[in-house]
Design brief:
The structure holds 2 protein chains of 2 kinds. Chain A has 15 helices and 1 strand, in the order αααααααααααααααβ. By secondary structure, chain A is mainly alpha-helical. Chain A has a domain of 220 residues: Cytochrome C Oxidase, Chain A, CATH 1.20.210. In chain A, helix 14 runs antiparallel to helix 15. The longest helix of chain A is centred in the first third of the chain and has 36 residues. By secondary structure, chain B is of the alpha+beta class. Chain B has 2 domains: 181 residues, Immunoglobulin-like (Sandwich); 93 residues, Cytochrome Bc1 Complex, Chain D, domain 2 (Orthogonal Bundle), CATH 1.10.760. Chain B is elongated and about 100 Å long. The two termini of chain B are 47 Å apart. Classes of the chains: A mainly alpha, B alpha+beta. Chains A and B meet through helix 3, helix 5, helix 8, helix 9 and helix 10 of A and helix 1, strand 1, helix 2, strand 8 and strand 10 of B. The structure holds copper (II) ion (2 copies). The site of one copper (II) ion has 4 residues of chain A, from helix 8.
Chain lengths: 533, 317
């Protein structure tokens, strides 16, 4: 035994809170985003309870507005956006490129503290009255009419944004400067490409939401007239600024997820990815196009029909690189050696749910159809298929896949498969009925609804309880496995990738000697590639 | 609990069928696509399942032909739906010329309707079937959204502007009206009904209540009350542009350019007159933002409209 694992030494709380080791910071993030995930889920439980019956009876109308707002704020800003990059990305970006750490280890620790600070401020706002604006903070409601803690929440989210920016910067510099000898761009795992694209979006987009929220705070707290028409402002300007970040934010959530899926599909088909360069560049295409589709949130706001057409066309275009990825993952299975271990089940789940989420995005991109489904449960279902069906499935898949590396022990396969299945079933039962509800015309953010819509709502609430159980099971056995799980070797999956060449859990320095890369990624067999198609 | 499970809302407007057609076409194409992916995954996963841990499948090199195929086919399908969706959007947003005018004021948390003849209603709007209805909408406070699922129409009502939408009901009946943009605690209580009636019934309904003044008559009074008349009416004291025959005409602006004198421009000129001044005048008028309510504003616009030239909906009566 040479160097000790990063988990074992140094010891003590202080060594964790002052660590600059990217792996330990990943664990710090894992703990924090998990807490926020369960907090956000608790709000979701209350929402689904309220919607069991048509009358607004379980909670007050005022409370309901706070519940869905805080569900959105917590899940989006404190879980979905950071989850994959800060946990899996932090842990794996250096390991996958053969580096000892990120380029700026102390900046990395700072970004966690910034996250904790922003999140705590928002938590404080939740405890002190909550927010009732919806996570979208639409003006002039948020600046003039809301009676919630808008300013505090806004400042919390503003601060958290800087943590995103710092992480993005760190990844970009690391990926440019710290690749192992021989690791050219086209030899990088697709996980790295996806994180590179994500980092670009974080660095370019987050400042815009930060400024926008600052303007909201300025209007609300200082009475400046920016968005409120009564003070000479323009409420639609807010929507442009807000969605300029918040649409790309969807890709910030889903691109890293796609990176995870590329790793899972290749590892469990034991095969090179089909169309490497297409999958890699599709990430970049999504990142670029993703910045020019924000106007599709404003098709019924009175925006000019021609602007609407441009945004509609671009939104349809962004579907193409997503389709390319799905086809290439599917083709990767062809003549592979497909295993049905838990991470692969999550990957299958991701592909299915992401496909449905993506396809229903086309419904919303179509101008004339969006008029009817805009701001209904159709939209709610659509983005949950992308964010929960996509991002969370990939996060859990990735967590299971790299768990042996992160913790040094294996999780119980039977339970893991079972919970993956429970999550898949629960998810579809929760969110598929919402597509139907939306087309029937149920508006989102309704505390009470017409009685003829109850059956579908009950189905959705039933699904949510199954989904909740599905999320709790891994929580329990992953904890359990840290203590009781079987110890694992360096490469339990027989996977390719530099992170599997070092012990599990890795030593603090990651690699005893800097690895030299001589192969393309996902090389499982030395045979020459066969040509198909 | 009511055990009903519909998949479509009622179809009660001229455009509902067209929207449903696009919806069904998209359901069909995306259904096929999803099934294709699902079948491929299931078939590949079973056919190439791992039989032994020692299996090492031969790598497969990518295929440019396939990549081009699955780039171009989705692209063409996407563009086709883009074109379909856009042309439908123009149908949904272009108001037919013979539309009947109704004025809508949204405020937390109610819908107020006024018919041109003057009859007012709250959270219920009576309209004749077979006749396009043009809604001129304004908000007193935050953003609301006028949404009638059975008609497949929705339009945000944004404070500070006039929002316009239209529909034509095809069948008599009561149809739900929702506010679709979150507007505060009682957002889900900001609902109502559109009551579509046979034209004869509607005409009777309209006359049933002594209407009092028409919108334009009320507007004329407000015009005098707020002192607009002193500057905007002919004679020695005229200091502002004359308003007769203004509505719907293009006017030249101070500093070049022209603007169409529509609801939007008239609203702007009342609320913040300095924004775009008519050529040959200077800014003497105070801003009336906050001094006139949205209802008064819409009455004023109805009055200005009645000064001609006839806009859509006015010549019909
Ligand atoms: Cu978007
Ligand atoms: Cu509302």
């Amino acid at each position: 035994m040479s160097a000790e694992s990063y988990l074992a030494s140094p010891r003590g709380v202080r060594s964790w809170l002052l660590t600059t080791d990217h792996k330990r910071i990943a664990i710090l993030y894992l703990v924090s985003v998990t807490l926020f995930f369960f907090l956000g889920s608790a709000f979701a439980v209350a929402i689904r309870l309220e919607l069991l019956t048509p009358a607004g009876d379980a909670v007050q109308a005022d409370t309901y507005g706070r519940l869905f707002t805080m569900h959105g704020v917590v899940m989006i800003f404190f879980f979905l956006i950071p989850a994959i990059p800060t946990v899996l990305g932090n842990f794996l970006v250096p390991m996958m490129i053969g580096a000892r750490d990120l380029a700026f280890p102390r900046l990395n620790l700072l970004s966690w503290y910034v996250y904790v600070l922003g999140a705590s401020i928002s938590l404080w706002a939740i405890v002190h009255g909550g927010v009732d604006t919806g996570w979208t903070f639409y003006t002039p409601f948020s600046t003039t009419y809301s009676n919630g803690a808008v300013v505090t929440t806004g400042i919390g989210v503003f601060i958290t944004g800087f943590s995103s920016i710092l992480t993005g910067l760190n990844f970009i510099v690391t990926i440019h400067r710290m690749r192992a000898p021989g690791l050219g761009w086209y030899r990088l795992p697709l996980f790295i490409w996806a994180h590179y694209a994500t980092s670009l979006m974080m660095v370019l987009g987050t400042p815009v939401i930060a400024m926008t929220l600052l303007l909201v705070v300025a209007e609300r707290a200082l009475g400046l007239g920016i968005f409120d028409p009564a003070r000479g402002g323009d409420p639609i300007l807010f929507q442009h600024l807000f969605w300029f970040y918040s649409h790309p934010a969807v890709y910030i959530m889903v691109l890293p997820a796609m990176g995870v899926i590329s790793e899972l599909v290749t590892a469990f088909a034991k095969k090179n990815i089909f169309g490497y360069r297409f999958v890699a560049w599709a990430s970049i295409a999504i990142a670029v196009l993703g910045f020019f589709v924000w106007g599709h949130h404003m098709f019924v706001s009175g925006q000019s029909a021609y602007a609407g057409m441009v945004f509609s066309a671009l939104s349809f275009l962004v579907a193409v690189p997503s389709a390319i990825k799905v086809f290439n993952w599917t083709a990767t299975l062809y003549r592979g050696s497909v295993s049905f271990r838990t991470p692969m089940l999550y990957a299958f789940g991701f592909i299915g749910l992401f496909t449905i989420g993506g396809l229903t995005g086309l419904f919303l991109s179509a101008l004339g159809l969006d008029v009817h489904v805009h701001d209904t449960y159709f939209v709610v279902a659509h983005f949950h298929y992308i964010m929960v069906g996509g991002t969370i499935m990939a996060f859990l898949g990735g967590l299971h896949y790299w768990w042996p590396k992160i913790s040094g022990s294996s999780y119980p396969e039977g339970w893991a498969r079972f919970s993956a299945l429970v999550i898949f079933v629960g998810f579809n039962l929760t969110f598929f009925p919402q597509f139907l509800l939306g087309y029937l015309g149920m508006p989102r953010r309704y505390h009470a609804y017409p009685p003829e819509l109850q059956v579908l709502n009950v189905m959705s609430s039933a699904g949510a309880s199954i989904l909740g159980v599905g999320y709790l099971i891994p929580m329990v056995y992953l904890f359990w496995s840290m203590r009781y799980g079987a110890r694992v070797a360096a490469n339990p999956w027989g996977a390719s990738g530099l992170e599997w060449t070092t012990p599990s859990p890795p030593p603090t320095c990651n690699f005893e000697t800097t690895p030299v890369v001589t192969q393309d990624p996902y090389t499982y067999s030395s045979e020459e590639a066969q040509v198909v198609g | 609990m009511r055990w009903e499970l519909d998949l479509f809302p009622e179809r009660a407007s001229t455009v509902a069928g067209e929207v449903d057609a696009l919806y069904l076409a998209l359901c069909l194409v995306s259904g096929l696509f999803a099934v294709l992916i699902a079948v491929l995954i299931v078939v590949f996963a079973i056919k190439y399942r791992r039989r032994s841990e020692a299996d090492l499948p031969r790598p497969v090199s990518g295929s440019l032909g396939l990549e081009i195929t699955w780039t171009v086919i989705p692209l063409v399908i996407a563009l086709a739906f883009f074109a379909w969706g856009s042309s439908l959007y123009f149908t949904l947003t272009e108001v037919p010329r013979d539309a009947l005018e109704v004025v809508v004021v949204a405020k937390r948390w109610m819908w107020k309707f006024q018919h041109l003849e003057g009859r007012r209603e709250i959270n219920e709007l009576h309209v004749p079937v077979g006749r396009p209805i043009r809604l001129t909408m304004a908000s007193e406070d935050v953003i609301h959204s006028f949404f009638v699922p059975a008609f497949r129409i929705k339009r945000d009502v944004v404070p500070g502007r006039t929002s316009i939408t239209w529909f034509e009901a095809t069948r008599p009946g009561r149809y739900r009206l929702f506010c679709a943009e979150y507007c505060g605690a009682r957002h889900s209580g900001m609902v109502g009904w559109i009551v579509a009636m046979a034209p004869a019934d509607w005409a009777r309904w309209l006359r049933a209540e002594v209407a009092g003044e028409s919108l334009a008559q009320r507007g004329a009074k407000i015009f005098v009350q707020h002192g607009c008349a002193s500057c905007h009416r002919g004679g020695p004291s005229q200091r502002g542009p004359a308003l007769e025959g203004l509505f719907g005409r293009r006017v030249r602006l101070e500093g070049g350019g022209t603007v169409l004198a529509d609801e939007q421009y008239l609203r702007e000129s009342i609320e913040s007159p300095g924004a775009r001044i008519v050529a040959g005048y200077s800014l003497l008028m105070p801003a009336y933002r906050g001094l006139v309510s949205q209802e008064e504003l819409l009455d004023l616009i109805a009055y200005l409209r009645s000064l001609g030239p006839a806009g859509p909906g006015t010549e019909a009566r």
